[in-house]
Amino acid sequence: MFTNNIKKDFPLFKAQSGEKPFVFLDNAAASQMPQAVINAVTEFYAAYKANVHSGIYAIGTRAVEAYEGARKKVADFLGASEDEIIFTSGTTGSLNMVARMLEPEISAGDEIVVSAMEHHSNFIPWQELAKRKNAIFTVLPLEADGTLSLQTVRETVGPRTKIIAITHVSHVTGSVNDVREICAAAKKAGAYSVVDAAQSAPHMSINVREIDCDFLAFSGQKMLGPTGIGVLYGKKEHLARLDPVVFGGGMIRDVSMDKSTWADPPQKFEAGTPHIAGAIGLGCAISYIEQIGIGEIEKHERALAAKARHALSEIPGVRLYVPRNEKELAGIVSFTLEGTHPHDVAEVLSRENIAVRAGHHCALPLMKHFGISGTVRASFYLYNTEDDVRRLAESVLKAANIFKT
Ligand code: C6P
Predict the structure, then answer these.
(1) Calpha distance 36→284 (Å, rounded)
(2) If you measure from the C-alpha of residue 162 to the centroid of ligand 1, how many angstroms do you get, rounded to a whole number?
(3) Angle CA(240)–CA(241)–CA(245) in degrees, nearest 5?
(4) 88 Cβ closer than 6 Å to some ligand 1 atom
(5) Helix, strand or coil, per DSSP, at residue 284
């Protein structure tokens, strides 16, 4: 099933074809969109563009149905209910929003816990919240291989912990955290759990009831959807109780001179005109993923990443940043080439028509843990093939030969 046939669904690969076929390995940053998603977005703009707040007219009703249909798609995908799904601008938007929502729950001396492997988007909002409230900001240290041990989590989370915010999958090493156990530890301590699912929702089956997290965030653009759309899942009871943090149209029950009251969730958290086309595109992207099967996609990417790790490990000077336990690895491979800046390696790969990401990946605490300034990262998705892995390895070998001292 996972052959070049899948690439045919993605017009970008046709647009990019040249002497050497384009190999896209920066899926952790932004994935490509299949024609079906592009069509769904275009159709909204071409055939029924209307605001979801206005219309007692045909295209207005159609826009609302499509937008709310997308919410149902997301809810079913996560095992949540529709009123627990807030559309946002992306993972960053979701995490900043939940940090603001939880602000009134935090007092001086309370503790907010994150790990050293977090993306800055799941680090800075909590660091800033702690600063505003005079709370303690605790960063969980990592093992030498960049993994987070459950023992560290359990030993740290305690009665003063109010929030623990953890990534499901590291966007740098591909290490998978046991978020179920981490959320259980949070619950035991009476703390809120927030899961950054930016690198897991696109690639593995997620059920928020099974994970039993309080909040979970991800981006549409990393899962075959458009840019600028994301999701914040929040448990019903929290969304009912917590106040909104963005105010304006579409989120009120009543407004009078002295006070305003809020609509029910999720509307109370969606002030202003949302990214309607983005939500519709995300709903369509989920349908596309479901057609192929998220379990199959996960297996395919993990197998490719394992092959890539093996091939790269045979190249002199390559250092892989691989968690020891292969079972807990997603389809992401980070490496450095001795004596060479990651940008220089990426430049050589780009000349070979291979797109990877190089740099600190918005994960400076993790880079500091490893004592490096950055890595080269190849991140896989459903349309990548064994041929892509072969091209990657050949080109890294070429770079190794070019930069040999
Ligand atoms: N990581 C990467 O190349 P946004 O930008 O809001 O869609 O996602 C932010 C974000 C949050 N958490 C994790 C784990 C992420 O990987 C990202 C985005 C991209 O790794 C861009 S820096």
Answers:
(1) 7
(2) 24
(3) 95
(4) no
(5) helix
Instruction: Please report, in angstroms and rounded to a whole number, the separation of the first and last CA atoms in the chain.
Output: 43
How far CA 285 is from CA of 35, 225, 226, in Å, comes to 10, 5, 9
Name residue 337's beta-bridge partners.
318
Handedness of CA 38, 265, 88, 276 (dihedral sign): positive
Is any atom of ligand 1 closer than 6 Å to the C-beta of 377? Answer: no
Between CA 324 and CA 148 the distance in angstroms is 12
Helix/strand/coil (H/E/C) assignment for every residue in 14-81:
HHHCCCCCCEECECCCCCCCCHHHHHHHHHHHHHCCCCCCCCCCHHHHHHHHHHHHHHHHHHHHHCCC
- Give the Å distance between the CA of 56 and the centre of ligand 1: 38
pTM above 0.85, yes or no: yes
Mean pLDDT of 25-39: 98
- Would you call 183 a catalytic residue per the annotation? no
Check pocket membership of 156 for ligand 1, CB cut-off 6 A.
no
What are the tens digits of pLDDT across the range 106-118? 999 999 999 999 9
